[in-house]
Design brief:
By secondary structure, this protein is α/β, with parallel strands linked by helices. The protein contains 13 helices and 12 strands. It has helices at 26-34, 74-79, 85-96, 117-126, 145-155, 179-190, 201-218, 223-230, 253-262, 281-296, 331-338, 343-360, 374-401, and strands at residues 12-19, 52-58, 61-67, 99-105, 132-137, 159-160, 164-165, 239-244, 265-266, 306-313, 320-327, 364-371. Strand 6 (159-160) and strand 7 form a beta hairpin. The longest helix has 28 residues, at 374-401. It is globular and about 65 Å long. The model is unreliable at 76-86, 162-183, 191-197 and 385-390 (pLDDT under 50).
Length: 406
């Protein structure tokens, strides 16, 4: 019996947007859930430069993951000369999503205590149309379980969906945020006239969070208004659930995967069951090359390199032969890329080839090469001659001053 491989018209489907600050583990999570490296990732920030889709098929359910760049604002795009897609794509993914996963990097002690304001702004704007789930990632480096419990309470404002607060009390180790001043500012901007006498700090928090959620659920919130509402907040009270995972080790992923699949709604499948990614294969190769350069080259060097497809053939119909040419602007960057006796570039070629074999599920032969502008080639050649002459002179001097050498 031949299995029907056409997209199902009467199955279940769900679009899942993954949000978070740069380097929070979004691409690693998707790769783990899909079961293969379909999204480029590295240890450096902003490896993902624009949104892409990864497809998970489970029986009659199709989950489409929207891998977004780390959330940045327009000022950062202009300041660091980044692509506009880094500020535009996360918001476009929110409009397309049926579920938002908010990734929080628990390994970063400077940022794990609060959800970034750029992420909070998106949550505020889209609370009215899509459910949201908090995902605490990199839990394998968290020091204590009790600390995790406190962190969840902070990031959810001690509140899950429908404004239902928990019974957790503030611990003496918690950093205080000025609730009273926040309430006064919010009351002034919203012309809040209700009598708030006799309210303690806990009542203020419940009232404030409930009022914010009520306004956000009523309809679209404009950017300026969203910035007003989230000012002073360190968490978001609109999450429907929380998951603690480690995308690197796989801990906790099965529960999250089951939750996502169970959240799917009836609907036709958008992609063919054989597809796991909607990206152009050549663009995927370039992204994999860039991610490995970012992982293995230091400082600014990988950001200055521009890989391009030189050729793409499959002569025997079995083995895919790919030639990638890396354009290098400076001779010193070329030396870092090539390494002593070509060791670095050979190592890069091997790990990139292994990733491509996993991505395509086929034999791949990769040829990785580099090119320099003529002026920089001359500098590199001149430096090589100087180094060679220096070595010869050093050897000659050693022989002249050592009577035991013939």
């Amino acid at each position: 019996m031949v299995k029907d491989r056409r997209p199902k018209k009467n199955g279940k489907t769900l679009n899942v947007a993954v949000l978070g600050i740069p380097n929070s583990g979004k691409s690693t999570l998707i790769n783990r859930l899909i079961g293969k490296e379909v999204c480029a990732y590295s240890c450096k920030k902003n490896t993902t430069r624009k949104s892409s889709r990864a497809i998970l098929n489970d029986d009659d359910t199709q989950i489409v993951f929207l891998d977004t760049p780390g959330v940045v604002n327009e000022k950062e795009v202009k300041r660091f000369k980044l692509e506009e897609s880094l500020s535009r794509d996360p918001e476009m993914s929110c409009r397309e999503a049926h579920l938002l996963l908010v990734m929080q990097d628990c390994s970063n002690r400077f940022s794990r205590e609060s959800i970034g304001p750029k992420v909070l702004r998106l949550l505020c704007k889209y609370q009215h149309r899509v459910p949201m789930v908090l995902v605490l990632n990199k839990m394998d480096v968290m020091p204590q379980k009790r600390y995790t419990y406190d962190l969840i309470r902070k990031l959810t404002c001690n509140t899950l969906i429908d404004g239902v607060g928990g019974d957790i009390k503030l611990s003496s180790q918690d950093p205080k945020w000025n609730v009273e001043s926040y309430v006064k500012r919010l009351q002034k901007s919203m012309k809040y006239e209700e009598n708030s006498e006799g309210k303690d700090e806990k009542d203020y928090k419940k009232m404030t969070y409930q009022k914010i959620l009520t306004e956000c659920r009523q309809g679209p919130v404009k950017d300026d208004r969203a910035n007003e509402l989230i000012k002073g907040m360190i968490g978001w009270p609109g999450f429907s659930d929380v998951f603690c995972i480690s995308a690197k080790t796989g801990s906790g992923l099965q529960d999250l995967k089951s939750y996502i699949i169970d959240s799917a709604k009836p609907g036709g499948h958008r992609f063919h069951p054989s597809l796991i990614h909607d990206q152009d294969p050549k663009e995927a190769v370039i992204n994999i090359v860039k991610s490995k350069l970012l992982d293995n080259l230091e400082r600014e060097v990988p950001f200055e390199l521009q890989p391009k497809i030189q050729y793409w053939t499959c002569p025997d119909g079995k083995c895919l032969e790919i030639g990638v040419l890396i354009e290098v602007k400076r001779a010193r960057h070329a030396r870092k890329l090539i390494g002593m006796q070509g060791k670095t570039i050979n190592y890069l070629a091997n790990i990139i080839e292994a990733s491509l074999i996993d991505y395509f599920d086929a034999d791949v032969k990769l040829i990785l090469s580099a090119t320099l502008p003529q002026s920089e080639e001359n500098k590199m050649s001149l430096n090589a001659i100087r180094l060679e002459n220096r070595a010869l002179n050093s050897e000659r001097h050693r022989r002249e001053n050592d009577p035991y050498l013939v």
